[in-house]
Amino acid sequence: MKTTRHATYNLNYHIVWLPKYRNSVLANEVADRVRTILHEIADDKGLEILNLTVQPDHIHLFISSPPKNAPSLLANWFKGISSRKYNHRYADNDGEKIRWTRGYYAGTAGSVSSETVKNYIQRHEADES
Fold first, then answer.
1. How far, in Å, are 53, 64, 74 from residue 57 at the CA level?
2. Which of 34, 62, 121, 129 is an S-S bond match for 50, by CB 3.0 to 4.6 Å?
């Protein structure tokens, strides 16, 4: 569990996105650079990367975030900031620009299953009756 000033939370998001046209551009040095930039973004935004995999044609990011950050905001931050930083730092040196597709996948994960939450709520409903 993590806390902010007004919340206790355990919100973990699995976000996946692709390079435009699903080109396999995220290999070797490019992958290392993107990985570094994603960690910089997480540090700047006060987020914790739980797991990160950069594949040649997609990225899997598993991140913990406070409740104030919507999953769409997280995806937009990581996609937008990473492409701007990468292109600013490396594309000028005869490197290929990084462009992401518009879409992404976002899923949630916590420490309990949906069934556990349903049972918890049902028990509390029964206690109030």
1. 11, 23, 20
2. 62
